[in-house]
Amino acid sequence: MERLHIELGERSYPILVGPGLLGEAGLLAGAIAARDVLVVSNTTVAPLYLARLGHGLAGKRLAEVVLPDGERFKTLETLSRVFDALVEHRMNRDACVVALGGGVVGDMAGFAAACYQRGVDYVQVPTTLLAQVDSSVGGKTGVNHPLGKNLIGAFHQPRAVISDTDTLRTLPPRELRAGLAEVIKYGLIADETFLGWLEGNLEALLALDPAALVYAIRRSCEVKAEIVAEDEREHGRRALLNLGHTFGHAIETATGYGEWLHGEAVGAGMLMAADLSCRLGWLAPADVDRVRALLARAGLPLASPPIGAGRALALMGMDKKVLAGRIRLVLLRRIGDGVVEGSCPADALQATLAAHFEARA
Amino acid sequence: MERLHIELGERSYPILVGPGLLGEAGLLAGAIAARDVLVVSNTTVAPLYLARLGHGLAGKRLAEVVLPDGERFKTLETLSRVFDALVEHRMNRDACVVALGGGVVGDMAGFAAACYQRGVDYVQVPTTLLAQVDSSVGGKTGVNHPLGKNLIGAFHQPRAVISDTDTLRTLPPRELRAGLAEVIKYGLIADETFLGWLEGNLEALLALDPAALVYAIRRSCEVKAEIVAEDEREHGRRALLNLGHTFGHAIETATGYGEWLHGEAVGAGMLMAADLSCRLGWLAPADVDRVRALLARAGLPLASPPIGAGRALALMGMDKKVLAGRIRLVLLRRIGDGVVEGSCPADALQATLAAHFEARA
Fold first, then answer.
1. Which one of A61, A184, A208, B110 is least enclosed by Cβ atoms within 10 Å?
2. A154 closest CA partner among B225, B104, B111, B19
């Protein structure tokens, strides 16, 4: 088991990564001081892991709420079911919410914890690669609005993140690949050495080699944590973590939440960011090819839906990473060196959007 | 105009109190740095003051959302209308929400601001006495759950509070009296001298004498701010502000939100707290009479609904100020000296509840 300490003053917390953690007696109970625990999960994950989690929490007063599975249920309406469960089980301020599932469960459980009685503890037990390397770390919680993703939420840090890599064995391969997009992201924005390691170990990751998984998850969390520690509330550098996201949000919003997985949209978006960085003269064409090749080897879709450049731009404009009407984009100065660009030339952006969002002959 | 500075580090803000503030050119605009402003109000207050507020914000990109009036609309469902307005008017992270109305509007506007894009600024423009002396100060925001008040919310400090005492001229007298209950509360928990001043100036306050109002509001905010500054997130001393509230919540919940005004329930609850403090030997019977006399002069209802002591206790048990299953009550060591009591003898509490909640012959 690897243990990573996220340093955020009094909101510091540990991330534990390893195979079989859900079965380790005392590990979960040790991470949760509360007597009263509400486990939030979904209809896919609960049958697989809820009993095992409950076993590890013997002695607690345990309640559960099982939500429908899918990004389209990440709404205020579904969130109110978590509040209902907290109230109906008479959970108090000293209760703890445990998120057992992927990013949607984690975001909603964390947001419910942020708001219930104006803030109770929560612990992340992510069961998807995406959640293990991204959404469970950093304290961003929230739900979607029909007109935009994650528009309603809170910053609320978990008390602990417990990532059992064995849970990835039940993850659909498509979701594993989507999670790899975010892993690749960390290499692109901050660590070319890690990107090289990924190029050398991609097959091991796809084959769920435990040691490779633990290393990739740990290093991903490390990169994310370093960036978040510098900028917890996303005023500056944290925006680097959004590489590919603004483009990706356009894909997700245009196709309706759920058709493209988040990580898939981010993957295609990262390719657009690389393309645009190349048009600005920062990346060489060979660098773009390198990004494309790795994403392709990870089995990620690279062809964006032909929604047209104009519509894509409009959808990007509704994205929450807009500042005073100007689009900020995360681009790459070099491989391993992300940068937040607030004044990207319109013609270069237009060319990238046209190349990726126009219908191909 | 009186100006009070609330010291909370980088979340510090000013409270401005005086007659005619909504009409003072530049005052509002000066308090709001944002270009984009969403005004949240209700169907009662908007026709009276929205135009005047808009005049003071000329030059801003202004949008508005007018909510139904009343505590029963302080729900997640109504809150989603504020999110809809923010999204539909394409408000960004640098937008500002302005709450124009009473406590319900302030709580919902503040909570929406806390959650929208994980936090935007908001400014309170309270138009009820209750909001001017209590809910607009301290950063507590939120909505009710069907099974309990304020169970869902956030701590989010306003950028400024602007209390125009002229708005109290359109306030129903019953609401003015309910607001006075909270003013009296500050005297009871922290300042016997202020309580004496209130005993000498109650008629001036009921007659809306401007100087008396400004003094009472300013002193109330000062007491609240001192307590909040010591304990922003309500781990200890801030609970003093809940004098009368746990008893009062039982009244409000039993009768359904809206039949009793919040301040009225708090008034009756403070009398119960005084009664219980007397049973514990802390207050003399004459002190209880003094509390009762002042509340009566303020025109507040003192007879609690005959719901029975058992039901009252159950309703108090669901209150959010419960810690690990034990009821914490705010009581009075002396007049002007509130105390949070975590282990109140059950028989004394039972006697107080019986005296106030049992049907009278």
1. A61
2. B111
Q: Which residues contact A173 (CB under 8 A, 6 or more apart)?
A: A206, A299
Q: Could you state, in order of their start, the residue ranges of all structural domains in chain B?
A: 2-170, 173-357
| CATH code of the region A173-357 | 1.20.1090.10
Which of the residues A115, A144, A246 would you substitute to probe the B interface, choosing the one with the greatest number of B C-beta atoms within 10 Å?
A: A115
Contact B168, B176 (CB under 8 A): yes
Give contacts of A89 with chain B, Cβ < 8 Å.
none
For B2-170, CATH number? 3.40.50.1970
* Beta strand ranges found along B245-291 (DSSP E): none
Q: Which residues of A touch B318 (CB under 8 A)?
A: 90
Residues found in chain B: 361
Q: What is the pLDDT of residues A183-231, one digit of tens each?
A: 999 999 999 999 999 999 999 999 999 999 999 999 999 999 999 888 7
Contacting residues of B for A140, CB less than 8 Å apart: 118
**Record: contact A115-B153, CB cut-off 8 A:** yes
Both tokens of A304, joined, read: 């964006």
Min Cα distance B311 → chain A (Å) is 16
Cα–Cα–Cα angle for A61, A67, A72, nearest 5°?
150
The predicted complex's ipTM stands at 0.86
Interface test with A, best of B89, B90, B91, B115 (most A CBs within 10 A): B115
